Amino acid sequence: MRPSTSAWLLAVLALAGVASAAFGRGPAAPEPGFATLQDHARYESLSAQVMAAFDSSRGGFVGRDGAPVEGAIELALARGRDGDALALARARQSLHAMHALMDTVAGGYVTTPRDMDPRETRFEKLTSVNARRLEVLTIALAMERDPVLERDAKRVLEYFDRLLTDPRGGFYNGQLGSREFEPEANGVALQAWVRWAAAHDDARRRAFAWRNTDMLWNTCREEDLGMVRRDLWGTIHDPSILSDQVEMARGCLFLFSAAGRDSDGLRAAALVRHLRVHFEDERKGGFREEYAYERFGHAHRASRPADDNARAARLLIEYGVANADTSAIASARGAIASVVRDARPRLETAEWALALRALWAPPGDALPARARFAAVEVVKAPPRTRLKPKPRPVAGRNRR
Question: 148 near 94, Cβ under 8 Å?
């Protein structure tokens, strides 16, 4: 039987990667560990698709609606750290083009260029969108200081502080709408929050991240359903959703990697175990979108959404590498092999490439490195002094 075209392509790319590493160009040969030659070859193939979809006339790595694709920018930054100067230049061009979506009055990014149209009656500044953009800004600033990007990152942080954070320890879904806590939005925000706190040794934001995980774990987790969505009265209104489990587990994993609190590591492990038991499709590979949907009268929707599967595979590889769990890495490889389609240049494949890169990423790259948080300074209020009332003049006496 003759080998397929995709198998020939992977073999050629693997040999090309090894040869280029021997002459000091391109990706390095795989180091002993979890990565294989096939993983490196598939990574180069997926990265080539993302780089080919770069459009300088529309702002770099942007989708059809004009919104930046944060995963593609993060992948280009990662390749820039590996020595790819062209990818780094493209990432920085995309980040500077993203400045056009910044609300310079109230802070925060709008979702798409359409939201900047004054003829529109409303605009969106969602928590998850601003969190992903804050994360790529943090990664870029850690590589090289840029005054424009630093100013944008601080505006996003101020927007979070003023409108998106709850004093109890949660993130709202946006500046408008419901005040419910959604695990997916909170997980994505937690990842960006922790990455910024670890990069700047910000103990105050670390403390808020701890309150966030504690509050979400106590209010939005069920033993048999994992992370669920509740309304303001505490009623569960949706089945167990894949993206909720993935993003909250990754947020807990980030927090454990940066701050080292044991309960965060245990929570990440519990959600990863729940994900693999109830969402993994052992027959086809990949992960289903919902679990226990029949309990809420929902019809079974798309069985294996590509975007959520990419984030799930990335979580499992990061967790597997951090804990030497080869079975989690095998599940991620099964999802990559069954869901990824090498058809045409697509920016959406960036998350799959980042998942594979986590197999050999250096410490502190895929997950934030352990930070040396400074002690939280408790500022005591000055003692209140009682002012003595001035004596009132008495009628009939001489006044000086």
Answer: no
Dist. CA 382–CA 298, nearest whole Å: 58
Spell 225-242 as b/e; 16+ CB within 10 A means b: bbbbbbeeeeebebbbbb
Q: Exposed, middle or buried by CB within 10 Å (0-12, 13-18, 19+), for 28? A: middle
Task: Give the gyration radius of the chain's Cα atoms.
Answer: 24
| Nearest-angstrom CA–CA distance, 233 and 104 | 36
Residue with token string 């693999």: 276
Three-point CA angle 64, 151, 153, nearest 5°? 60
pLDDT tens-digit series, residues 163-186 = 899 888 889 887 766 678 899 999
User: Does 63 map to a domain?
Assistant: yes
Return phi, psi of residue 280, to 5°.
-70, 135
Total number of domains in the chain: 1
pLDDT in tens, 385-400: 555 566 666 665 555 5
Specify if 330 maps to a domain: yes
pLDDT tens for each residue of 36-73: 999 999 999 999 999 999 999 988 999 988 899 999 99
Q: Does residue 370 sit within a domain?
A: no
Domain that holds residue 58: 33-357
Closest CA to 118 of 126, 130, 110: 110
- What Cα–Cα distance (Å) separates residue 147 from each residue in 47, 88, 141, 152, 208? 29, 17, 9, 9, 27
Q: Give the DSSP H or E segment for 136.
A: helix 127-143
221 within some domain: yes
- At residue 399, φ and ψ (nearest 5 deg) are -105, 140
The domain spanning residue 123 has which CATH number? 1.50.10.10
